[in-house]
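In response to a reviewer's request, we include the raw inputs and outputs for one of the modeled complexes. The two entities were modeled together in a single run.
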Amino acid sequence: MQVTHDELVSLLAAFADGELEPRRRMLMEEHVRQCAECARRLEELRRLSRALHIWEVPGATAERARALSSALVQMLPHRPAVSHLRRPSWITWAFPAGLVVWGALVEAAAVLTMAFGLAVMAAGLFAPANAWLSWLAGIFPSLNAPGWLETIQGLRDLGCQVLGISSTLPASLWDWLMSFLMPTIVFVSLLAVVCLGMWGWFGVQMARRQL
Amino acid sequence: MAQDTHPDPNGEAILLAPSRAGDKEAFGMLAQRYCSFAVGVAYRMTGNSQLAEDLAQEAFIKAWRKLPQFRGDCSFRVWLGRIVTNTTLDYLRRQNPEQPLDETLLPAGPAEEAPLRHLEREEMRQLVRQAVLSLPAQCRVALILREYEGLSYREIAETLDIPMGTVMSRLHYARQLLRERLAPLLELPEHSAGGWREDASDAR
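The model returned the following structure tokens for the whole complex.
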């Protein structure tokens, strides 16, 4: 693999810090032997690193560390045993679990409603009563193909049988379902997903801030 | 157990388990082991040794309170480093509430002066101290963790909760500034009379 001089220069700091993986490290070692400019830059980095250590922490001795930790032990507040702290209260899991279950149910309802509505539309039992349905039917003309028709009619009848409703509901009801109820459900479910995401993100951020 | 998922090169698990269970003496031994790390980071962030010890104590007390939540998905040093750096950065924010931490807090060192040929050791120390403390806090903390505490890029990224690329760019910027501000010192010979190497050679 051909590596340019500029690419190698950009890796110099990582090389000086011992952060390169073996293959690149060998490549860099070879390059530094041949390139006076990179050798000079590398020496500058190492020289800077050595110079920084002139500034030491005053009084940093083992005795001082012992004294500080002894004083710390006296200052530590009482803390309940870990087993009590780690036991989750019901609210800890019930709230997020409830949100997740609710969100999943709403999503499932939205998807089923949409699928059922599309099936009805494709079956041609009811003419699309608004512009949105006409637009959708225009995009997916294959939904009107004969093979689909029987399949979807069968699915629709089965669905109606399971739900215990009539398969000959009035067109106005389907229209209402498709134009009002379904977008509402989709909107609410999307809102629920956004809320869940924000809730999770906020929880993570709070946990980090507490550190 | 979750805390076993991370390598334990320092054998600290033997102190961590009782500390989590509420054993103050075990936590004291753990603190003793990491005292120079915590004080070192706080000292080089603030430039004040007494304040650094206070901040380190505060960080250890926070760590004691939060220890039951430590799941071992990073090393204890990284976890503690996160607490120490947050405690120190919070302190700096309180001291300079209107000064963003990515801006310079102190004036730069005497980079524009003519090269100094005969710096005394104490002057050299002050020059380095001033140069490091003049770095923007976010760059300074990355540099301190790398140069003084020897953390890897990955460990710094985990400690500061930033991507590896950001670690590298902050280190690059910090070193660039230091090269300019320490030019008088870096131009001196390392080993000859009046040089600085002898003083720092055993520091790493």
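As requested, we also summarize the result in words. Chain B touches chain A through 63 residues (CB under 8 Å). The mean pLDDT of chain B is 81.
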